[in-house]
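Q&A log
Question type: sequence-to-structure
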Amino acid sequence: MTILLAAVDTGSLSAASRQLHIPLATVSRRMSELEEHLHVRLLLRGTRKLTLTDAGRDYVAACRRIMEDIVDAERTATGEYRAPQGELIISAPQVVGRYHVVPVLVQFLHTYPEIRARIQLSDRVSNLLEEHVDVAVRLGELPDSDMIATRLALISRVLCASPAYLSARGVPQKPDDLVSHDCITYEGYATADRWSFGSGQTAQVVQVSSRLTVNSAEAAVVAATADAGIVRVLSDQVDELLKSGALVRLLQHDEPAPMPVSLVYPGQRQVPLKLRAFLDFATPRLRERLGYTNS
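Response status: OK
Response body:
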């Protein structure tokens, strides 16, 4: 059932093989054995992705319920519903995770010695259910889903560059000016070279000219301080550099609306006490660190 769900959720047997770290031949054989055992075809193997048959859709829905029951049974057996204990898996964006989540998590582990934690710092949006993540910190507006979200703060995205770069290339006066500038883009976002400005009816999107693309927000900041061009990053990451004058903030009146930061976890019949303890402990502390206000 685990292999079947992985294949359906990732879209192919090869992707399921990579996710589960099981040889592709084993994945394919297990699926064939399952269909033979049930005497029914579950999957149609197309050239691009798998498609479920009608029987397959019903069986997959039942599998999800069964796997959820197994997880609940395991948590009950290990005492996770009786006391805060066990392993807590957390996902967070690199910058917010490193500067804010990790320090709070360390305090939490001191307070709850029966809990151990694993934190995944990545700007990739993880699938909490597939990857068995208990709770995630998410940036941006959240899509409608079965996830439960708690707002932590609003965080600004700022545009900046080094004084030397601006002296050589000039200071942009409006978003459209960025087309003629060297911009540093970050491939953690799907639309890395399309920067939004303003909000509401005044919102606009500019396709910037990127000469350097990086896969780390910290690398983008380093490149900007080394005069490589204009960068857009979270305000937290460049506050000290802006205060020292190493970077200059640009187009402040055209900045997009602040981006929400949220704690997100799967909706479930019973929240494990390790997760409830973390939510109660971390929420007020993260809000304080991120400058949360009720406005």
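Response note: The mean pLDDT is 87.
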